[in-house]
Design brief:
Layout (H helix, E strand, L loop, with lengths): L1 H8 L5 H15 L6 H11 L5 H14 L7 H7 L5 H18 L1
Amino acid sequence: MAIPALAELLRDKGRVVRAGAAGALWHILGPEAKEAIPILNALTELLKNEREGVRQITVEVLGKIGPEAKPAVPDITELLNRENEDVRRAAADALKKMKRTGS
């Protein structure tokens, strides 16, 4: 099964790999799974990464998760002030998706 392999990737040195694994696990397990909180925490932590590309990918994954990712809203909101236009746009899109699907 893919879950153990993806869970192992949460410890990978590559930040993009961790973000992708967390997003895939969330998609497979869903927000009701007991593993959901650590996955969301891992993604939220990656929003603070110094590399803009990692922030962008992570916020895009959180946007796909939708309203279940609302605990990350304060960190996503901070990204609206970044210099990088792609990160700002991804953050704004993620917040819209959370609001639209969570209404």
